[in-house]
Structure formats: C-alpha cells, structure tokens
Design goal:
By secondary structure, the chain is of the alpha+beta class. Among the domains are: 288 residues, no CATH class; 91 residues, no CATH class. Helices cover 13% and strands 26% of the residues. It contains 7 helices and 22 strands. Strands 1, 2, 3, 4, 12, 13, 14, 15, 16, 19, 20, 21 and 22 form a 13-stranded antiparallel sheet that branches. Strands 5-6-10-11 form a 4-stranded mixed sheet, with no helix packed on it. Helix 4 packs across helix 5. The longest helix has 17 residues.
C-alpha cells in the first residue's frame, strides 16, 4: 500500500527472504482505557478543509451513533460520491474504523473485522514466484519481519539513489547456494568472496581466481524492459558483501553508496522490537481474482460498477459463498506490529498475542534464527487500506499510524486565526525515534541476508531514528491539503467515544488518480507524497503510484496495478 507499495519479488531464488511462518495469535478485544498523552496530536483549530459533520459520521455506526469501540459499517464503495477531495478522505476514515471494529457474527468470528474469515491471508512468494490465498482463521496470521520496502512498477524491490528509484533484481544462486555473476566471457561463475577497492567490486570465484569484468545476471524479460529506454537506468542487482548489501548496474558499475538505500530493511523500535507485517485481501478481492483467473468472467480492472460486482457475487454464490459486505468492493490491507514489552502506553494499542521467531543476537552485526519461537503480545502501529470504488479502479490508497510512532517534520495549515506552522520537534517518547533525536533520520541500520538479519554499515543492528518527512502525505508547506487532512482527522477523533482505542490512530492521507485513469507514476492526486513511516520508512518522498502503475490488471510482471495480483494463484 507503500505509498501503499506492497513488497513483491519474482524470478530467481530470493537471496534476501527471511524464513516465514504462520504464528498462532489471539487478538485482544478492545477495552475501555483512558487515552494517554501522545507524543504528538492533531491540531483542533483547522479552518475549513474536510470536516466530517455528525450527520455524516453517526450513520457509519451500526447503531446510528458512536459507541465505545462500536461496530462501523464499511463505506459504500459501489455508490461512492467521487467528489474530490473530501469524499476520498471520508471513505478512508470510515474504512479504517470498519476494519478495526469488533467483528459481528455475520463475519464468522474474529475479534476485529480484519481478523475475520471474510478476509484472506496473502502468502509470501514461494520459490516459483507464486503467492496463495488462504481463508483467514481468527487469531492466526502469517507474519514476516522482512522490511516491507515498496516494489517498483515491475514488481521488484526498489532503492532510492540520488532522488531516483531503481528496481532491484535478486541475485541468481547456484545449486550450491552461491551467488552467481557473469565473467568477461559471459559465463556464469560462482562467487566465493568479494571486496570493494577504489569504488570497484572485486569478485573471487570458488576456484580462488579473480573474476574478470564481472557483470550481474539480468533476466531476459528485464533486459527487454530496460531496452525500451536504454538511456534511463532502471534496474540493478543486489549482492551481499561481508554481510552488507551492495548494488551493481547491468554494466557492472557499482551503485554509489547512499544513506538509507538498502532494500530488505528490517525496522526496529526504540524498545528493540522487530517490526512484524502481514497482508490480507477481502472476500470480494479473493473471488474477483479467482473468477477472473479461472475465466468465469473477464475483467481488466478491479470491480467498480454493479455489473462488475454482480459477476463476482454470482461466481461466489455458485461456490456457496455470500459476502456480508459486497459494496465494500475489493480491499487490500497491510499492517505492522511491534512487541509490547517496554512499550510506553501499551494500553493505547490494538493488540494481539503471537508466537514469533527467536534470533541469536549475540553478534551485533548478524542475528541468526534459532529455529524456536517465543510467545509475545504485539501492538498494531500502522495500517494501509486500499480499495476500489465507483469511478476508481486504480483504487484509493490510504494509510494510518499510531500517534506515538514518529515525530513530524515542520508543516503548515490554515487555522481559525490564520496561517500556522507547526515546527519540527523530536522531543517526546517515540517508537521509532529517540527523545530529542537529530540527524541523520531515516537511515537503515539492518537488512536481511538469507535467513539472517545483518547490520547496514556503519551501524550495528539497532533502532534507527525515523522522521515523517511529509506529515500529511504532501509537501509540508501545502497548507491547503494539510488543512483538509487535519480537519478530517479532528472530526473523527473528536466524535469517537472517549476511550475508543481507534482514537489513538490517525490518517496520514490518501491518494488516487484523476477520473480513475491508470497511474503513470506522476499523476497521483490527493496526498501524492504519501508514505507510512513503518512501511515506507526508507522510501519517503515518493508516491504510491511511483511504484504501482501501468495497466490495472496485467498479464505479467511488466504490468499491473497491484503487485500481489499477478503472482496470486486462484483459490481453486
């Protein structure tokens, strides 16, 4: 959801994939708790913008008025008013409250709607580059500690170098698990060791000989994509040297080192918790994908019209499935979680218990999984919400975070007393920044190598300091847009019943394209610099549609809006 940019990788054996597992969880019911003092807050004096009046807000709740942690209905995406920009922000706010509501019995169980069997878990990529959907079992989630870097337009992870995004081809491995590179004769050679001299990479083969003029191995289909615009480098390949990642252009040149560029980053909280992630889709998405791929119907875009939806519901009904909320249309969700041990104000989070992997942390530069697990309580720190609506098959991309995650850079807005600027301040207790933290911000300290977590030089494996560069998903100086998001947030927060845990989270923003046209990388509107500090920590300054672009539903990795759509196999 990046940028709601979901991390995906295809092709060769992935040399940067952590061991994944399904961990048994018990999600706690939301309980009455006094709202804590947050490290930051939403201004309450915005003038104009996108306020949500009680006449609009109250009907969101099933009882017709706000109640403590009360059940919220989903937004009616099929009859979406499509009036920029406020209706998009209202849709986003309502969908977040719906997903985090207690699940009524019609959803089949689960303590929250996203924890109910109406959702489907999206698996990580397997060795064949495929993903699967599995009907969600309440309290069981597929977690990974792999940093969820956004994928590029062709489904590959990205790095940001000198303001440009480059997609990363995984390293091809030999049968023995050794990385391979091409020598000056164009032959694949196993790498035994490597070092950097004078800004050049020196590879030594397993035979103990220097590899002459090494070049990375780029797949033919990726070469073909690059050949269309040869003057614009688009792809690099990743290698691990002495536990640290480096990147080579196709001609063998080293990508200049740059702060925060590493892919596969692992985010660690100030309380020394790894950040855990999982991805899900709803029932409409799952049966739309299955019917489309099984040729029960043919659609080139996510469902947005009654006719589109009727095909999906008819197909699901033929398989004995009825959707409790079909008008929600197709929904993707991605969330991030940390352990609650040592977490300030742990009672202000939506929490769950889980069994997560244990690492041997004796070496500060390389953590190795022990093969065992530990039972912990996890707190939700962020969520991406993405969904199709009437007039917008490219989907609305929205993001939410807990107030205590990170400090904001300076931003401006319009108050009832005139223009205001809120200065940057890092004072306070944060999850992903030290109290009073200064430069550098948003520099990765940890990455992945095989199943291990490794340090990113010159740091050891440790918490980094994170700053939210664009606090409300657009340039901080854009007072008009900031005022819209601030006013929408304040309306929701002020109307929720005191003690509702959802009041501890706020909307960063939402983005879409004009008139629902296919994203091109530069045509996003709304908050078009949207980045979640737990999901796009090291790729801030871009937009969801920097990575998610092209045809709505492609036939291969060279096209497609949703990076998870193409690799997912049908349900049956």
């Amino acid at each position: 959801m990046k940028a709601i940019c979901l991390w995906a990788q295809r092709g060769f054996q992935n040399s940067a994939a952590l061991t994944l597992g399904v961990f048994v969880l018990s999600v706690t019911l939301m309980t009455v708790a006094p709202l804590p003092l947050h490290a930051q807050s939403i201004p309450s004096d915005a003038s104009g913008g996108c306020p949500i009046p009680s006449g609009t807000f109250n009907p969101w709740f099933q009882l017709g008025h706000p109640t403590l942690n009360g059940v919220v209905n989903p937004a009616d995406s099929l009859n979406f008013p499509n009036i920029p920009n406020c209706s998009f922000y209202q849709w986003s706010e309502q969908m977040f409250l719906w997903l985090t509501s207690p699940a009524p019995s019609v959803y089949g169980g689960g303590s929250h709607i996203f924890d109910s069997p109406t959702f489907y878990d999206v698996s990580p990529l397997d060795a064949s580059g495929h993903r699967t959907l599995k009907k969600h079992v309440s309290g069981i989630f597929p977690f990974t500690v792999l940093r969820s870097n956004p994928a590029g337009p062709h489904g590959l992870p990205v790095i940001r170098v000198q303001g440009k995004l480059l997609e990363v081809e995984p390293t091809k491995l030999s049968a023995a698990g050794k990385p391979l590179v091409l020598n000056n004769l164009g032959k694949e050679v196993e790498i035994e060791k490597a070092e950097i001299r004078n800004n050049k990479v020196m590879f030594t083969s397993t035979a103990g000989k220097a590899i002459v003029a090494p070049k990375p191995i780029i797949r033919p289909q990726i070469k073909a994509i690059q050949a269309r615009t040869p003057a614009k480098p688009m792809f690099v390949q990743k290698f691990i040297i002495n536990g640290h990642p480096i990147f080579l252009f196709p001609n063998g040149d080293l990508v200049p080192p740059e702060e925060g560029q590493a892919t596969g980053d692992v985010l660690i909280s100030q309380q020394n918790s790894l950040v855990y992630y999982f991805s899900m889709v709803n029932d409409v998405y799952a049966y739309f994908l299955t019917g489309n791929k099984d040729h029960a119907f043919t659609q080139t875009q996510f469902p947005t019209t009654p006719a589109n939806l009727a095909q999906v519901t008819t197909f699901a009904s033929a398989h004995g499935v009825t959707f409790p909320d079909p008008n929600a249309l197709a929904i993707e969700v991605k969330s991030s979680w940390v352990e609650t041990t040592g977490l300030p104000n742990a009672g202000s989070y939506i929490t769950m218990t889980a069994d997560v992997p244990v690492y041997n942390t004796a070496n500060p530069n390389q953590w190795v999984p022990t093969g065992s697990t530990k039972h912990v309580t996890l707190a939700m720190v962020a969520m991406h919400v993405v969904g199709s609506t009437k007039g917008h098959p490219e989907m609305i991309w929205a993001s939410f975070e807990h107030f205590n995650n990170t400090p904001n850079a300076a931003y401006s807005y319009t108050s009832t007393s005139g223009p205001k600027t809120v200065p940057q301040s890092t004072s306070g207790t944060w999850l992903f920044a030290a109290n009073g933290a200064g430069l550098p911000f948003n520099v990765s300290h940890a990455s992945v190598s095989g199943n291990d977590i490794v340090s990113v030089a010159p740091a050891t494996i440790s918490a980094s300091n994170t700053l939210r560069n664009e606090p409300f998903g657009i340039a901080g100086s854009n007072a008009f847009s900031n005022t819209q998001i601030i006013s929408a947030n304040h309306s929701v927060l002020s109307q929720l019943t005191s003690g509702d845990l959802r009041a501890n989270y706020y909307m960063l923003g939402a983005t879409w394209t004009p008139f629902g046209v296919p994203p091109t990388g530069g045509n996003g509107v709304g908050t078009n610099l949207l980045a979640n500090t737990t999901l796009e920590t090291y790729a801030q300054g871009t937009n969801c549609f920097t990575c998610h672009q092209g045809n709505m539903l492609g036939s291969g990795p060279d096209s497609g809006l949703s990076h998870i759509y193409f690799p997912i196999q049908p349900l049956f």
